[in-house]
Amino acid sequence: MKRTIHKKDPAVWITNAIRNFIDESPDNTLKNAQNDKAWADPLIGFSRGDDPIYETYKDVVGPFHWTPKEIFKKTFHGSSVTADQLTVISWILPHVEITKSDNGKESAYPAERWVRARMFGGEGNEILLKHVVALLQEAGYDAVAPVLSPHFERKKSERYVFASTWSERHAAHAAGLGTFGLCDGLITPKGKAMRCGSVVAHIQIPATNRPYQDHRAYCLFYAKGTCKKCISRCPAGALTEAGHDKTKCNHYMHPHIDEYILSHFGFKGYGCGLCQTAVPCESRNPLQGT
After folding, report:
1. Which architecture does CATH list for 10-218?
2. What is the mean pLDDT of residues 203-231?
3. Where are the domains of the chain?
4. How many other C-beta atoms can be found within 10 angstroms of the C-beta atom of residue 108?
């Protein structure tokens, strides 16, 4: 059954639109023989376009990382919009349980369902990004999905090796949807086995509460010095107590895992996710209730 759309309450309207897509769209699929869904019930949050955290990302991520106003102005030339008139809509798409279970049983290569979610579920997430932008545009609100913008670029970073002009995880963090873990994954109330997306819109929606001060608050290692399960889960040796070695991770995935996926699953793809499964933060914030 479709959820009621409340255009008088933009937060409810957008939240329901995203949930309806995940519930009902044929694009939420692994494209396997069973046509299983890629994503479970989403989490949705909002952040203000003038939230100071976006300025801090220029230091944390790189000076090239956009503020919401910067990407909006690049998209809508001549717009007189101010940062406080913008909202960043963010969502978390958790993997379905069987995908997490399958991947959690692996120790060297990703499970087929995980790769299908990364590839075909990723395609569905792109369609969701376009869907949300179209809904907003049709209702009279200019909007852009930064990662689909022709201006979007991947960059080299002195601090992080690889970065980009917009980070979906950092947008989700700004919207109160999670904090970062030892492996760089975003740990959300539904865990870090997920994908995320965001749209910047000329609409005013109250910001979601950000219930943390520390950007690593939900990680057992940073909070208590315990766990480190993701380290032993990494087949590339790319994780240590010092953090995530993106170069080692990337060299293991390309072409090593790429070749495995093609030879074993019969399609081109990439992904790993072993550090996101069979760990305490796979499906929850492991510090909740402690």
Report:
1. 3-Layer(aba) Sandwich (3.40)
2. 97
3. 10-218
4. 12
